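We were asked to recover a plausible sequence for a given structure. The inputs and outputs are reproduced exactly as logged, with field labels preserved.

PROBLEM: sequence recovery
POSITIONS: 518
GIVEN STRUCTURE:
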């Protein structure tokens, strides 16, 4: 490979349709975006005469050369040859890569659109200079896309080409904008191969200030997302259940000492109970379902719980606003996909919430977690879970989902499974009364949020600490002499949450001996 690698960090694809460009000048927008730092420009015109296209390309190449940025032409090898620009971008229905290469020669930059593993491997083997992977998210800019592949699809392609030994550069495309760029970039990246950049149309072409838009997007590509927290220092890594168990008291103590805010956007059924559990566990609850409030609340050092137990269209918009606010400053979010598989509305809600922000922890029962994973057989009856998977299958599921989302997955049940995509912790604590009281699952989400707020650097340990606090409190409550059933259990449970917290603060860790963790 004699030719230098292209900087794909911020790849602009033009679009001069009025719906996107408005009444601005294409040349002006491209020049402004270059000032802002765009690193590649692709001229993409789906209509118009060849002569006019060549004229446009000629004018653009004068601009891109000033900024030392390559100009590529979508699909039209003839136009690229006519103007002598740096290369082309071809789709699956366009000219064959080998033919384009013959026509343009070895030094031309040729990129190929791919949306699955087969296309990606073929393009790499055929000598593509880069892959445009998409469509990541549905976008009004291109409505005839073949496949919406999400970040999971992008990551799968990256992993596959890396495994095959290809070092071909990559960008992703489709629905990328300033509010989702960092999450898409982060979740799409595979261990062995990250994306080299992102390609956008409307995020720049439709912007009122393309210079500022490009500048901001480039800065987002080049910086660590705020919601990614540096892990614990080496030597302190809790790589097994014992290591995590040792850190539980410190996490509980920190909750006790700092009273973190637990901002709950939760359902009507559990608001009161969740607030009481938060208080007993040592957090400061606020039940605020109005998304606008998150802009202020997210700055208070706490965490957010999104519980879609009584989801509504308006509620969803509120979730997005809050999610954005917390993601932007890197404060943690717990998502509780209550009844995820029960109705098609809820299945769609799960997808859109996943597409609207980064969720540090997702907590649900088996049916819910299966739905989040995309298992369409996980039809639920009401919001209760029906068990179908055995232990090893559950481990596999939580691990795969956590790896896909790059977060922590908690799957509750008689046995709980908690995974960060690498390690999976199995917890055998709890009591059957928890299943006889409404909202215990939801309030576990609240308890996890408190731990997460004080221990963002290790979400797995935070989740495990909260689960142990919660479930051992249930065990201790159930054996109190006054407890005769689920009714008397509830107050005793609140008492035990509180008692465990106070005992831990004083250094009494006898409760933790009940932990059954592996
Ligand atoms: N190609 P926006 S998606 C030009 O999937 C194009 O190959 C796609 O527009 C593909 O950044 C797309 O405005 C449009 O969402 C992307
Ligand atoms: Mg094409």
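RECOVERED SEQUENCE:
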């Amino acid at each position: 490979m004699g030719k230098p690698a292209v900087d794909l960090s911020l790849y602009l694809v033009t679009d001069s349709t009025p719906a996107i460009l408005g009444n601005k000048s294409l040349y002006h927008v491209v020049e402004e975006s270059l000032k802002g730092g765009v690193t590649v420009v692709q001229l993409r015109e789906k209509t118009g005469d060849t002569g006019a296209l060549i004229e446009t390309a000629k004018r653009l190449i004068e601009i891109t050369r000033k900024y030392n940025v390559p100009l590529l032409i979508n699909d039209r090898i003839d136009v690229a040859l006519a103007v002598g620009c740096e290369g082309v971008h071809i789709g699956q229905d366009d000219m064959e890569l080998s033919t384009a290469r013959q026509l343009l020669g070895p030094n031309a930059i040729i990129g190929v659109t791919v949306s699955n593993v087969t296309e990606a491997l073929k393009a790499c083997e055929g000598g593509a200079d880069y892959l445009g992977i998409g469509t990541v998210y549905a976008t009004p800019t291109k409505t005839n896309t073949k496949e919406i592949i999400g970040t999971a699809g992008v990551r799968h392609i990256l992993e596959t080409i890396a495994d095959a030994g290809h070092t071909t550069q990559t960008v992703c495309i489709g629905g990328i904008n300033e509010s989702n760029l960092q999450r898409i970039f982060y979740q799409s990246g595979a261990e062995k191969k990250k994306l080299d950049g992102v390609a956008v149309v409307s995020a720049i072409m439709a912007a009122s200030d393309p210079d500022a838009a490009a500048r901001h997007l480039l800065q987002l590509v080049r910086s660590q997302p705020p919601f990614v927290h540096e892990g614990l220092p080496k030597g302190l890594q809790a790589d097994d259940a014992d290591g995590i168990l040792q850190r539980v008291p410190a996490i509980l103590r920190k909750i006790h000492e700092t009273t973190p805010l637990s901002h709950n956007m939760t359902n009507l059924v559990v608001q009161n109970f969740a607030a009481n559990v938060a208080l007993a566990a040592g957090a400061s609850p606020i039940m605020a379902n109005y998304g606008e409030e998150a802009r202020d609340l997210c700055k208070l050092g706490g965490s957010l719980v999104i519980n879609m137990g009584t989801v509504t269209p308006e509620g969803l918009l509120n979730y997005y606003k809050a999610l954005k606010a917390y993601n932007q400053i890197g404060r943690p979010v717990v998502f509780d996909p209550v009844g995820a598989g029960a109705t098609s509305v809820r299945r769609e809600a799960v997808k859109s919430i996943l597409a609207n922000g980064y969720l540090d922890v997702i907590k649900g029962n088996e049916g819910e977690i299966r739905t989040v994973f995309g298992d369409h057989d996980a039809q639920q009856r009401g919001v209760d879970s029906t068990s179908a998977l055995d232990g090893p299958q559950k481990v596999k599921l939580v691990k795969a989902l956590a790896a896909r989302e790059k977060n922590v997955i908690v799957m509750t049940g008689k046995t709980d499974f908690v995974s960060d995509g690498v390690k999976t912790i199995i917890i055998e604590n709890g009591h059957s009364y928890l299943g006889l009281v409404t909202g215990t699952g939801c309030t576990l989400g609240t308890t996890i949020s408190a731990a997460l707020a004080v221990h963002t650097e290790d979400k797995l340990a935070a989740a495990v600490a909260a689960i142990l606090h919660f479930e051992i409190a249930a065990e201790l409550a159930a054996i109190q002499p006054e407890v005769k059933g689920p009714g008397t259990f509830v107050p005793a449970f609140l008492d035990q949450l509180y008692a465990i917290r106070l005992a831990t603060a004083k250094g009494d860790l006898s409760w933790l001996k009940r932990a059954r963790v592996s």
